[in-house]
Amino acid sequence: MYTMIFFDIDGTLLTEEKELPKTTKLAIKELKEKGHQVAIATGRAPFMFKDLREELKIDTYVSFNGQYVVANGEVIYKNPLHKETLKSLVEFAEAKQHGLVFMDHEDMRASIEFDPYIEESIGTLKFAHPKHDISYCEDREIYQSLLFCKDDVEHDYIVTYQDSFTFVRWHPVSTDILPVGGSKAIGIAKMLQHFNVLPDQVYAFGDGLNDVEMLSFVGNSVAMGNAHEEAKRVSKHVTKHVAEDGILHGLHLVGLLK
User: Fold this and answer.
1) 171 and 194 both lie in a single domain
2) How is residue 34 annotated by DSSP?
3) Alpha helices in the chain (DSSP H)
4) Contacts of 93 (CB under 8 A, 6+ apart)
5) Could you tell me the pLDDT band of residue 17, with boundaries at 50, 70 and 90?
6) Residue 242 φ then ψ, to 5°
7) Does residue 203 share a domain with residue 162?
8) What CATH number has the domain bearing residue 214?
9) How far apart are CA 46 and CA 182, in angstroms?
10) Which residues are catalytic?
């Protein structure tokens, strides 16, 4: 049976310190040697995990939480944010003095020169504060934007743009902005159509709120020991913490490795 296994990155493949455990790297190598299709499903942009893909020799992935899907190096699905509505959101955020980051598959730019919330949250991914270019979203496809504010003021955005955008918080001072209804599950569904694979032949490992739809969709779901409680609730299995060989333990748990 042709089996696909999707791995989230932050908190799943990588520890909080953004390190790849040795046991995880060896486990993925063994999965590939057994003939399984190994893929990544992340909220990150492709340029943000190029080194990881090269280290693990993976060229199949769902990025931007499902908005940009690549199978064996070929782009098979794209779902950018609506440009005119994004322009409206830029003005809305500007009036509230909240920063934004615009992301395409090649790079990212910030709506303002410097924002401590951007510095803080992007810094946890080991990236520097993006360069300032508020026009970056005008002449290219933006697959995901990041809004920088605390959750107590996010409600105004959700209500105003509920018909256009989905907001998924990933950090205390930052939330992902996706096309309405966008999720890793949608991206994975496009991937399964491409490879002619059924959901019950699919495994997924994740830890965050942006993994909930993915973990609910696939036939075999594994939440990390460090996962958000909602991710654990929808998963069939819960493995150990990412830093405690959680991936290897989880693969043993579901019988993919012995």
Assistant:
1) no
2) T
3) 22-33, 50-56, 83-96, 116-123, 155-160, 184-195, 212-217, 229-234, 246-253
4) 99, 100, 111, 147, 157
5) very high
6) -55, -35
7) no
8) 3.40.50.1000
9) 17
10) 8
CA distance 247 to 110: 34
Taking each helix axis as running N to C, give the angle between helix 246-253 and helix 22-33, from 0 to 180 degrees, rounded to the nearest 10: 40
Q: Of 179, 202, 220, which residue sits at a domain end?
A: 179
240 falls within a domain: yes
140 shares a domain with 175: yes
Residue 62 in contact with residue 42, Cβ under 8 Å? yes
CA distance 218 to 192: 10
Angle (CA) 198-204-209 rounded to 5° is: 120
Q: Does any domain span residue 57?
A: yes
Residue 35 has pLDDT above 70, yes or no: yes
Q: Is the pLDDT of residue 78 over 80?
A: yes
pLDDT cut 70: percent of the chain above it: 99
Scan for tokens 């995880």, then name that residue. Answer: 24
Mean pLDDT of the chain: 97
Which of 156, 179, 202 is the last residue in one of the domains?
179
Radius of gyration of the chain (CA): 18
Considering its fold, how many domains does the chain have in total?
A: 2
Residue 99 structural domain: 83-179
3-state secondary structure of 74: strand
Same domain, 186 and 61: yes
Confidence category of residue 1, pLDDT binned at 50, 70, 90: low
φ/ψ of 182, rounded to 5, equals -70, 140
> pLDDT for 158-217, tens place per residue?
999 999 999 999 999 999 999 999 999 999 999 999 999 999 999 999 999 999 999 999
User: Closest Cα to residue 141, out of 191, 67, 90?
Assistant: 67
